[in-house]
Each structure stands twice: as C-alpha cells, then as structure tokens.
Amino acid sequence: MNAPSHPEPQPDSSGSVFGKSITPQDVVGHLACPSCTHAIAYTAQQIGTLTNCPKCNGTAIRVGHSLIEEMRPEKRAVLAKPTAVLAPRQPWLNRHTLGFASMLLLFGLALTAAAVLTSSQAVSLSSGWLTWKSVSARSGEMPVGTAESEAARRALPPLEITLEQIEQLMTQTDMREALVQAQVWQQMLRDFGIPDDDHRMRRLAELIAYFTEQLKPQPTPPPAYLREFRRALDDLREALRAENLASARAALAIAEAIFKVHGDELAMFSRSYLALKQRFGQLELIQEGKQRISELLTTADQLIRRDQPTEAAETIAKAMFLALRTPMEEAEFQQRDQAVRQLIRDLRLARGKRAVADAQRCQKENDLAARNIQLNVAMELLPDLPADRVTSLLTQARSLSEMSIANPVPSSFGRELAFRAVYEDALNCYGRRNALSELAERCSAAHELLQSATTLGATAGDKLADLILGALESEVGDLLLLPPRSPEVASGLAQVRAALEKASAWREATRWKSVDKALQSKGDEVASLAIEQASKRAEAGDLAAAIDLIGPARTLASGAHRTRAEGLSRQWQQTLERQASIAAQDEAWNDMRTLYREGHFLEVWEKAAAFDRQFPNSPRKDEVAGVRAAIRGRVDQEVAALVQQMEQWLTDREWAKFRAGFERLQEAPRSDAWESQFLRFEEIVADMSAHADRLFRNLGTFKHMTNDSAVVSLQQALREILELDPEHQEAGDLQRKAQERATQLAQYFLLKSRSASHQTTAYKETLDKVLRLDPDGEFGGQARALLDKLDSTGGNEAKAG
Asked: Are 505 and 445 in contact (CB under 8 A)?
C-alpha cells in the first residue's frame, strides 16, 4: 500500500522555514562578488535589495535574486516532489511508523533547502543581466537550473524596471550615482532586447544626457578685472568713434589703472590697448594739443625763473614731443619753435649757474672729478650768453679751477650729478624726431648710474622709466595704426624692436612687456603678408625679389611665422644658387667652345681646369674631361711656344709678363719635355718674390709720404715691387694709400696753381706736379688741359687769369 505524498512545509507567522525560526538580522546566505569573487554575507532583511562588495566596491548585486530565479521553470528543472515508499508494517506499528517517516521527510527537505541556499552563492553579471552559477560549477559540475545559452537568455522576460523607478533617479542627491544607475539600467534593458523607442529607454536616454551635461565642468567665469577692462576698452572705442574726448579720457583712465595692476594677465590685449591709447592721444592733440603745448612752455619759463633747470628741461621735452605730433599751420609751428629756442637759451643760463654752484659743493666735499666735470659744463654753456649775465659766473668758475683738493674722494653727490647729466641728455633726445634708439641708449646708461646713486630714491627711477617706456608706447602705437602694407611699417618695427632691446633694463615692467607683445602681433601680421607676397613672386619665377620681400618676415615675425619664412628663404636661396650655378656652367662651357673654335687650346685647358675646381659635381664633368683629352696634343704644342716666349721675357726683364706666363704654365699639363724649364722658372719666381720683399723693406722714409716727391718715388718703387710679385699684400695695401695721398696732393696743387697763375714758370711747375701725382685721374686731366692751353697761348692767358 502506497503512502500519501508528504505535504509542503509552510512558514509560521514568525518567519520560520522548515520549523526553524529566522529573524531579519540572521545571515541566511552568501554571494560571490563577480569582480574579486569575495564571499558577501547577507541577512534576511537584505533579500531583494542591492548591495556592493565591501572589498572592491564592485558592481551592485541584488541579494536573493538566486532564490527567485531558481523557482522559475524556464531557468531550471524543478525536482519532483519526493514520494515516501513505505514497507508493510504490523498494524500496531502503523501509527508510530507514519509519524516517524513524516519527521524524516521533513528533516530531508530541510537539508535540501539548506544545500540550495549555500550552493547558490556565486553571482555573475554578464552583458547587464544576471545568471546564476552554483559553487559546484567550479568543480566541473553544471548545476540544475543554470541557463547559459543565448536562447535561454533571450527567453528571459524584461527585468522589473519601471518608469516610476527611473523617475526616482531625479530625486537622488548624488548625481554621479544616478548617472551610473541610469547607464546600468539602459544596458540591462538593451541586453534583454528592449527596443530604443520603449518609453523606459527614451526616458533613460534623456536622463543620461541631462546628467552628463550637468556633470560637465563648467567654464570658469572671467575675473572681474577682465570684465571691467573689456568694458573700459569698449567705452573708449565708442568715445573715440564719437570724438568725445571727456568720455574717452575717463575710459582710458579706468583701463590704465586696471592694466597697471594686471598687466601680465592682460598681455593678450596689449595691441588693442596701445592702439586705442594712441588714437586717444591723436584725438587729444587735435582738440587740445596747441593749448597743451602753450601751457607746457609757460610752465617751463616759470621753472627756469625759479632756477629749476631739470624740471624745466622735462617740460620743454614734453612740449617738443607733442609739437612733433600736433597738426598745426606752418606759421604756428614757427612761432612755437621760436619760443622753444628762447627757452633753451634761458635754460642754458640756468644750467650754467647750477653747474657753478654744484662745482662749489663738490669742492667742499673733496670730489675733484665731479667738480671738474661741472666746471667744464659751465665753460661750455656760459661763454656765448650775454656778458652782463655770465661774467661773474665765469670768474667764479675760473677761480674754482685753480683751487686744489688734497685728498680727492668720490661723493654721493657726484654720483647724483653723473646721473642727472645723462638723464638730461636723454630729455634732449625725447623731443627729437627719429631719436628713439639714441633715447634708449641714454636711458639705459642713466639706469646704470642710478643704481649707484642710492640717495635719489624711487622718483628718479620712475621718471626715467616713464620717459623711455612712454616713447616706446607712442612709437609702436603709431605703427599699429598703419596698414600692414605701408612701406614704413617694416622699418619702423625694426627700429622700435632695436630700441626695445636696448631698454632691456625694464624687461620685467608691464609696459615693456605690452610693447613687446604689440610688436610681436604687428610683426606677425606684416610677416604673414610678406610671406604671401613673396610666395607669389616665387611662383612667378622671380626668386631674387621673393627673397627680398620675405626679409621682414625673418626679422619681425616670431614662432611659426619666422620658422616658415626662414625655411622658404633658405629653399629659394638654394634654388637661386642652383640656377646660378647652372647658368655659370653653361657660360663656361660656351666660352670653352668659342675658344676651341678659335684655336686657343691652352686657354680651353685653363678654362676646363677652372671649371673642375668650381663645379666638381657638374653633370658636364665627363664632357669637360673629354674635351681635355681631345686637345691634349695641341695644348702641348702651345705650352712649348709659351716656354720659349717666357725665356725671351726673362731675357728682356719683363717681369710682369714673365710672372703672368708662369701663372698660365702652372695650369698647363706637365710634360717631360719642359719639366726642367718649369722647375727653373719656379725658382726664378721665388727669387723675384724674395727680391720684392727686400725692396719693400728698403722703402725707408718713402713710406711716410711727407711731400709730393716722396709720394711719386713711393709709387714708382711699389710698381716695381708689384711687377716682381703681384700678390705682395703689404705692397698692394701701401699702393692704395699712396694713390689716395697722391690724389689729395694733386687736388691741393691744382688749387695752388691759381695763386701762381700770374707767374708762368711757377704755374707750370705746379701743374707738372699734379700730372706726376695723378697722371690718369681727374685732377691730372685738368692739369693737362691747362698746360695745353698755356702752350697754345704762350702764357698770355695764364697771366691774364
């Protein structure tokens, strides 16, 4: 008789399973981390929630999902319920046997459930969805209920991800976690085959895009000073366009104040800033320039009267600087120029008075060098002034110069005077046109002196810096306003760059850097245009003009523009040299052909030898070698004739011809027929050079060229020396000097002949001297013409003259 099936165990109200009570805090299983395989314990209350590995903080895992999946028939086959098969029992044992069997069955089911719980610990996340592998899979056994095939995965229903859960992502405080969760859910739905037009997929895509945009690093807002500086430049630009000088002045004041503090950060605006500043200066000069110049000249006159010559010189320099840039009529310019000249004359008197007073102080401080310098200044300035105003000053200066100083020592006051003298020289340059380079030199020298004149303080340094940097800003501002095609831009940029380099003592100053940046910007603009124009000329085949046009780009540009310009120039120069070499080779080849047709075979040989030296890698090298081989016999015949001719020149003592023949003989092919004669000629040439050296050493007093006879004799001796040795370097140099001296004396005697024209003999002798000194020159020709006229008139015309 078969026993009935065992009933399913039911949990009680306290959460007991299989008769065992479980609290929410009890550990009921373990999961394996898919990243590090670390065993993660979980409690009953964590079932159905997400957790992360405490060891590697890896992928989130849903706790208890294995139990849910294991109950699905699609995932695994469900084990058949166990059926108890009972053997026949005695009646008196049936009641007890049934109870005992039931207890055994319950105990077996409990063990089975525990095995399922402990064997389902490994969790694997693949392609965004979960599959479960039991621990037995590690030993090679495939547990019942594991789905690994693609068909099984596709058969799974979508995860329970609802639109409400997706919307909850917007409520999370950590936007980064929300973005990661949205991306995980999107991948999970896509792996389950959910189409992109699904409402959940669309919403996840929107949230991912929103979170990504929000998490992007936002650009840092510009600092307040940058916004204010830009606003000031815009206001200045608008005021200049409207020619509103007051508004432009206010905007420029704001921009200058900001640039003074943040010049390094605003370096990129240097060009715009300086250009607008220059435009403001031009507008100011147009509207107020004449009045401003008049005010400065009036102030200078007052400073001179108060015996403040340095301050007066500064004011006059500013007035002259403005006058060079202020549009005015010629009459107005002359009037102001006359006023400036009078002020400068009064300034000389003030400086002279101050120099005498400073010399007296140096005398008291035992500074002899500084005292003498001030006395020299006084003696240079005072003598040309009205006597009634300078007589006493000159007397004091002379008496001071006669005083002695027992123990002279340098003084700090003397160093101040040295700085002041160079500074005032710089002021004179400031008011002159095209004196920027000289101004930079004077200011740099004054800056060096200022380092030792420590008693002057920072004011003197600020004045000096403002002088040179203001001039540089003005010059570069004028260039910035010119179009890049203007012919004076390139030269002007080069001049300002040279002056800027001379003023390197202020290299760390903000204003120096702004001028440098502006020069670079304008230089790159001019260089870009020069490269464009030069490239067009190069394409047209005019490489020489292209090299000339690209020259400014090589000197004015920086960085990539300069590198490109230098590369193009080098390329064109190489092409030009190659073309010139080809043309020279063709010309030499044509000369050889002409000489060959005319029968001058030795000259052809000489040309061929020179060709090989000049063009060792020429494509015509083999042709030239063939020509030399073809004419070798005829060359030997000409060489034999040349050797005989040289013997004759040697007999006739025609040294110059003999030396020239020997030079040709050196180029000719050597032959046993005349080898001994060549060696003898070589010894003779060496003796000639030695004799030339002896003659040169024996020139003696002729080298001094004290009078016309010495000059003529020297020229004759030098001609003899150079005939013996045309390459005598010292004789050649002295001959050039003798020729210059002879020309000077010829001009002198030609002028002197006019005073002796009434005496025919003296007149003729003077003209003869001119002829001897300059027989082939301009003055010798004039003397020859006068002598011819004298001979034709019998001296009457000379006497009349």
From this structure: no
Q: Where are the alpha helices (DSSP H) in 324-434?
A: 330-364, 368-381, 387-402, 412-430
From residue 318, give the alpha-carbon distance in Å to each of 248, 275, 324: 21, 21, 10
Q: How far apart are CA 360 and CA 398, in angstroms?
A: 12
What is the amino acid identity at position 368?
A: L
Side-chain-side CA neighbours of residue 399 (13 Å): 9
- For residue 607, count CB atoms less than 10 angstroms from its CB and return exposed for 0-12, middle for 13-18, buried for 19 or more: buried
Cα separation, 27 vs 42, whole angstroms = 6
Amino acid at 549: L
pTM of the model: 0.55
Instruction: Report DSSP state, residue 700.
Output: G
Closest CA to 766 of 735, 736, 740, 787: 787
The Cα 140–Cα 142 span in angstroms is 7
Q: For the stretch 467-501, what's the b/e string if a residue is b when 16 or more beta carbons lie within 10 angstroms of its beta carbon? A: bbbebbbbbbbbbbeeebeeeebbebbebbbebbe
Measured CA to CA, the distance from residue 794 to residue 788 in angstroms comes to 10
Report CA-CA distances (Å) from 531 to 521, 568, 569, 573: 15, 9, 10, 15
**568, 574, 591 from 578: Cα distances, Å:** 15, 6, 20
- Collect all residues with Cβ–Cβ distance below 8 Å to 232 and sequence separation of at least 6: 251, 252, 254, 255, 258
Give how far Cα 77 sits from Cα of 72, 101, 325, Å.
Answer: 8, 27, 103
Q: 3-state SS of 118-159?
A: HHCCEEEEECCEEEEECHHHHHCCCCCCCCCCHHHHHHCCCC
**226, 473, 514, 748 from 510: Cα distances, Å:** 16, 12, 6, 60
Residues of the chain with pLDDT below 50 are: 1-21, 65-98, 100-101, 105-107, 109-157, 796-801
Closest CA to 200 of 212, 187, 219, 218: 187
Q: Is the dihedral of CA 393, 394, 399, 402 positive or negative?
A: positive
What's the rounded Cα separation, in Å, for the pair 379 and 360? Answer: 14
Are the C-beta atoms of residues 418 and 375 closer than 8 Å to each other? no
- Contact between 751 and 716 under an 8 Å Cβ cutoff? The reply is no
20-45: burial string, b at 16+ Cβ within 10 Å, e else: eebeeeeebbbbbbbeeeeebebebe
CA 778/CA 772 separation, integer angstroms: 13
Angle formed at CA 656 by CA 651 and CA 660, multiple of 5 degrees: 100
For 191-225, the pLDDT digits (tens) are 888 889 988 999 999 999 999 988 888 778 888 99
Dist CA 779 CA 27 (whole Å): 128
Among 723, 724, 717, 722, residue whose Cα is nearest residue 699:
717
- According to the model, what pLDDT value does residue 142 have? 35
Spatial separation of the C-alpha atoms in residues 319 and 260, rounded to whole Å = 25
Structure tokens at 541: 């085949």
Helix (H, G, I), strand (E, B) or coil at 30: strand
Is residue 724 within 8 Å of residue 689, measured between CB atoms? yes
CB 566 within 8 A of CB 554: yes
Both tokens assigned to 310: 């340095």
Q: Is the dihedral of CA 499, 503, 508, 514 positive or negative?
A: negative
Residue with tokens 């040179």: 468
- Reported as type and span, the H/E element at residue 42 is strand 39-43
Give the CA dihedral 694, 697, 702, 706, nearest 10 degrees. 170
User: How many other CB atoms are found less than 10 A from the CB of residue 272?
Assistant: 17
As a whole number of angstroms, the distance between CA 14 and CA 400 comes to: 125
Closest-CA residue to 723 (of 695, 704, 698): 695
C-alpha span between 206 and 73 (Å, rounded): 36
- Amino acid at the residue 683: E
